[in-house]
Structure formats: structure tokens, C-alpha cells
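Supplementary material to the annual report.
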Amino acid sequence: MEILLASILLPPLLSFLLLFLVGRKLPRQGDWLAIGLSGLSFLAALFLFVRIWPGGEFHTQAQWFQLASYSFKAGFWVDKLSVLMGLLVTFISLLVQIYSTAYMQGELRYRHYFGYLGLFTFAMLGIVLADSLLLLFIFWELVGLSSYLLIGFWYQQIEAPLASRNAFLINRIGDTGFLIGIMLVYLQFGTSDLKFLTTEAMLPMRTSWSLVVGLGIFCGTIAKSAQFPLQIWLPRAMAGPTPVSALIHAATMVAAGVFLLVRTFPLLDTSVLTIIAITGTITAFMGAVAALFQTDIKRLLAFSTISQLGYMVMAVGVGAPGAGLFHLLTHAFFKAGLFLCAGIVIHALHEAAHRTHVHFDAQDMQRMGGFRKKLPFTFVCYTLCGLALAGLPFFSGFLSKDAILLAAFQWANGQSSNLAWLVPSLGFLTAFLTAFYIGRQLLLVFFGEWRREPKHNQPVYENIEEPPLVMRGPVALLAALSVFLFFSLNPFDAGNGWLLTAFTNDATVNHNGHTIVVVLSVLLSLSGLGAAYWLVMKKTFAMHSFLGQLSIRNWYLEEAFQSLVVLPAKFFIRIAHWVDSYIIDKIVDFMGIFTVVFAHIIAWIDRILVDGLVRLTAYTAGRVGMLTRVKQGSIQTYFVVALLGLIGWVIWVVS
Amino acid sequence: MIPLDHYLLLSAILFCIGVAAIVTRRNAIVVLMGIELILNAANLNLIAFSRFDPQKLQGQLFALFVIVVAAAEAAVALAILIKVYSHFQTTELDQINELRG
Amino acid sequence: MSLVTLLFYVFALLTVGSALGVLLFRNVLYAAFTLLLTFLGLAGLYVLAGADLLAVIQIVIYVGGILVLLVFGVMLTQRTSQEYPASRSHNHLLGLLVAGGLFTLFLIMIVQVNAEHLGWIASASSNAAGQQSTLAGIGLKLMTDAVLPFEVAGILLLIALIGAAYIAGKGQNR
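Predicted assembly:
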């Protein structure tokens, strides 16, 4: 079992190390090595999945370090949740790496790219498999680091390093809260062992503490999973290579936050859960609105991810972590598929532009259209994934979204306050918006006619070609996985599917209002698609309306951040600088002056007294020495003098 | 038993003869002989006291190591003397006054 | 006066007399030979003090080693023009002063301390029996308690050998 675990966890790390150390000397810069190692890791994860899933778990632990009488243990805990996530991570990572061989071809730091991907995968697997919060936190930080490296991969550009720094800093905010949460957990229970905390702890916690602990852990999720109000880093992270975006958005980084919530679910008490549910709802809604009128193909998908993450967090908040995890899984497949398709579009446009020597923004949807004729394969895949995202029946997204909405519905039903109904209703509204924006994107990119200025209209369009097989293969696989069949035999209800049954504890799942939810969500999805069709037919981008501005500017969050956080911070820094230069520096200066003056006094004392004493001694010695000048230079004379001195000294001491 | 004081007195006499040899003789080799006399005087003391410590033999052991050191010292000192002779063409100490300040 | 006491005085006289010879002979070779007599007398005194091994070592090392070395030194540092290696003395007054002063000090000390009546010596001499050989005891000690000094002494001798050979060697330096 340990060997199996090691063969999941170590190959990505090995790939990182090998590519960095010897990658330059390998043929094709060693991308085959990275893919091979990922494949190994995936196979091991698959094997482990088959072993663990039917039941049972595996826990291995060793003494990590000891501080006085506190001993810290670390190890790996494999249960259903871990194996599922491990399989997902290795699978998406493998597909993304295969895809990247074509997408990143000819890139300057090709092997570094694959190395970073390995590190990223390793860190995420560590999060998934770690058995204690402390160990999890270490991998958590490693994920932050590797995402920083990958987002800023094209560091020669202006935007990429800024975006990566932004992502890194915002993640620090959440991590601080997370760390505080971990410390409090340790303080309360004397351990950070996840298995103990989630299965055996009787939670003898004071209410206020449990609130702070829950909020601390949730802080980590807010930053990592881009929840309100820290979601601004995610759209900017689009500056990284597109396959990386697919990896970040689907399987690794943002999923980590949701995974953390699911993992620590027993630690969260009701008030925290309510906060989580509200935050998730707000995020889902805001993300969907922001996605409405985006013109950048990748930015739109980024906001869509935020919105879907909001769904997952909402699911955890309303007490259905299983539904959240389900959505995480389905979303991972179709969102990775969407991103990889978008990557194909961008790649194809780039190639075409390169061949015709025309330069333009390859991500602007206002300049696309009609690609279904040129990229029929991509079109099919994109449609499949997009419809899954829109939540149409017969697709995976429908099942998971339905499960979440049902849970939210029932949760609101059980709450005393009427305000609780805001959560499911905003969820339903978001479902409508989701269908709208993805439908709009589909129409803008693949339908209609090529919207390009006439002068270099045709050559570019004519030159658009389907990409090579290594890019199409993963996309096809992901698109296929967006179909309902893989998750539940019943296309309208996943409640009895293999995944939800594994994560729902009480067997008597309440199916009240299920029909209403299904009908409502189907209607909303269809009407969203219809609205999109209507808007696109009007041939307007609606960018200058209030809603359009709100959407494109992402609720002015960036500006709000500037004025609410950055400016006060700058002001504070200025004050700190003033204090530093006018008070602290002055004190330091005074100390310096004082020291110099003091040193002068000391020097005077030194010169007059100490040096004088030494000179006096030397003078005396010299005078005495002159007495022995009679037989100068004879050893024997010295010897005699020494002995006489000895005799004299003994007489003086004894008498 | 010979009284301990006798040994001590003899040792003192030997020591003082050694000192006198060092101070008065001009030949460096005789000065070395004086040093040997002093070392032997010390050894005699050690052995005389060691009589009263028959089990542990500490004094005799110490005397043994003194002999070892004396042998080494004599070898090195004579080597230096030979070098000094080849340089100054004499071993008379009053003619070797390089140390004059 | 027993035989042992007689022997002690004979050896003591021999030692002191020959030591005086070292001090007084102008001929350096004579000084060397009287030093031989001193060493022999000391060896006898060692035997009388119960240190038979030390007596043997005294003869082997001092007479067989150091004295031969000294004689070689005398031979190698004499001008061939002289009929014998003579060396006059000087500083007579100073030497007398220093040696006499030291001797006076020692004398006072010996009388005042009165070592015979010190506690541990008085108690030891009452049950002093050992007239057997000290060879086995010293050998054991050298290999157990004193093994480190023993090794260090070996290294010291090696270094002295190398150093002496290097210093006296030809033409290395001026």
C-alpha cells in the first residue's frame, strides 16, 4: 500500500526534479518523461481507487518531529474522498500535459513548463492525501508557489508577472486565516490529525472558538477557491498558458479550497456553514453576472469558474458536501474541456495569424465567429462541455447542479428566516445566467460569420486548421465525460448515482420538491440559452449598458480593492514611512551621535591613561634592560637574571 | 631504609651543580650536560618519593617520560648545535650573541 | 651502618663528585666522561630506591644514547687545530651566587618541610614492603592507565628524530 501511495505521489515530483536537472539533455526536452511519469501516477491512482472505493481506508503515519513533549505526526490518509480527488488530479494533469506538448511547442522554457506542471500536480496530490492539517498546509503553500510559477510563466510579458504576484499575495491573505485556524484546532484538540478530527473528535469546543476555527479554515478556501471578496486574482490568472488555466480551474488549485471544506466538514458548525452558504451564493451570482458580457474568451470562462465554485461552496454551506464534491468532479471535466477547447481556438488563430503575417488579439470574441465550419471537431466538443455547464438534462453538469439546488432548496425549507430563500433563488438565477453566458460564447465563437475587418478577412479565416491529435484527444475524452452516463443512469436524478450515494450519510434522502427543482432548472437553462440567442441575433455586445459595464468590470471589484484596500494600505505605508524616517531614524541617529561622542571620550581616556600606562611600563622595562647591558646578548646572563629573579621572588613570597 | 631527606639533599646538590654548569661554562655542549644533570636531579626526586607509593608507581612512570623527553631534547639540541657551529664556526656561547638588541 | 647505607653514601659521593667534575673540567671530553660516572651513580641510587627498571633504563638511554650523542657533538664541533677540546669557564661569581642561593633555598625548604614526617609518607613507610621488581607493574601501567602519554611519547620521539635529521641535514638552509 505504501508503495502504491509513493507511486502516486512521487512521479510528479520526480518529473519536476528530472526535468530541471537533466531536462536539457533529454530528447524533446523530456516531455515524454513527464507524461510517462504522470501516466504512472494516474495508473497508481486508478489502482488505489479500485482498491479503496468499495470500502475501507488506509492510514499510515510516522513521527515527524518533536518539540519538548509535543510530538507531531505526519502521514497519509487515503479514503474515498482522497482516492476520488487523486484520480481526478492525476487524470486531468495527464491530459493537460499531453495537450501541452502541442500547445507549448517551441516554447523557450519548454522543460521548465513541464517541470512546473509536475510540481503543481505533486503539491495538489499532497493536499489530497495528507492526513494532518499541518502537512496539508505545507502542500497548500506549495500549490500557491507552483501556481505562481505557472501563471507567471510568460514573465517577459507585462501582465503575467503582475497577475502571478497578485494571485500569490491574495492567497497569502487566505493562508494567514487558514494558519490561524490550524493553530486553534491544535490548541483545542492537541492534534491536527484529520482522521481524528473528522471521525473521532467529540468537538468539546467552545462556540466562539468553533466559529473562529471554521472561519479560519474557510479563509483558506476563500482565497484558494476565489470566493467573494477575494475572487479578483482568478480572472487575472488567465495571463498564464491556457492548459495551465485548465489545470488550475478544473482539478488542482481552486478545487483545493472546496476539497478542504469537504475534508474538514465535521469541524464546521452551523453558523459557519451559514456564512459559507451565503458567501458561496454571492460568489456564484457575482461570477455569473461578471461572465455575462465578457469579450475575452478565457476571461469569460474564468468568471464562469468563479461562479461554479460558488455553487460548490454553497453546497457545502447548505450541508451537502457530497453534492459539492460531485459538482467539483463534473465541473472539473467539462471546465477542463472548455478551457482546452478555448486553447485550441486561440492556438488555431495564432497559427493562422502566423501563417498570414497578421497580428491581432486572438482571444477577443468580438473578432471571432463561424468557426464551426473550420473547427468542426472542436465545435462538437465545446458544445458538449458547454451544454454540461449550462445545465441541460442528459449532461453531467445538470446532475450535479440539480443536486446542489435541491440541497439548497431543502436547506431553505428548514430555516426559520425567510431570508434563507435568497440562497436557492439566487442559485436558480445563477443557473439562468450560466446558460446565458455560455450560450452567448458558443454562438459568438462558432456560429454566425467571421467578424473581421474586411482587409485581412479571408486569408486568416482560410488558414484556420484543426490542431494535431494530441490536442484533440484529451478534449474528446473530457467532452465524453461530460455526459450523464458516467455519473448516474437516471438522466434527471443523481441521487442514486454511485458518487452521491458514497458521500451521503443518511440513507433516507429527502426528495421533497425534487420535481419542482428539476423542472425549474431545466426551464431556466433553456430560457438562458434562448436569451443568449436573442441577444446575439441583435448583433450587439451590450458593452455600454450599465449591466454590461458591471459585468465587464467584474462589479468594479478591482477598483473597490484599489480604494478600499490598496489605497489605505498605501496611506498606512506612508504613515509608517513618516514614522520611520522622522521618529525611529531620529532615535537611531541620536544613538549614533551619542555613540560617536562617547567613543571620543573613550578614545581620549585610551590615549592618555591606558597608552600612558603601557608607555610607562615599556619605559621602565627599557630602563631596567639598560642595567643588563653589561653582557648584552648572552643567553647565560639572561638565565642568571631569571634565576635571581626566581630566588628573590621565592624569598619575598615565603618571608 | 635510607631517609628521604638524604635523597632530597643529594637531588638539591645535583640540581645546583647543573645550574652552575649552565651559568659558568661557555661551551654549549657542557651547558647541555648541565641541563641533563638538572633533569636527573628531578628524576631522583620523583623516584625517591615513588618509594612510598609502591603499588601505583606514578613517580617512576613520570621519571620514565622525563627520560624520553630528555632524549628527544638532547637529539634536537645537538642537531641545532651542529647547525650553529657550521654557521658561527664556534660553540662558545659568549661569542654567539645574536640576541644583542 | 648497614651495607645498604654504605652503598648509598658511596653512590652519592660518586654522583656528586663526578657532577663536580662536569662543572670543573676544562676538557670537554673529560666532562663527558665524568657525566658517565654521574649517570652510573644515579643508576645505583635508583636501585637503592627500589626502581630497578629505571636504573636499567638510565644506563641504556643516558649512557648508551645521550652521552654518545654528546660525545659526537663534541667531536663534530671542535676545531682540529686544538690538541684537545678545551673550554674555559666564566661568570664564576654569578654562578656561585645563583647556585648557592638556590641551594640555600632548597636546604631551608627540606629542613622546614621535613618530608619524612608528612602524613602519607609516614603511613606508607610503615608498611613499605616492595622489594620486588617494578618491571611488570610499569609495563601494565604503560598499557592501561598511561597508554595515552605512552603513545604521545612515541610520537614525540618520532618528531624529534625527523626534526633533528632535518635541522642537521646538509644544505637545506644557511
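The beta strands of chain A are 58-67, 70-78.
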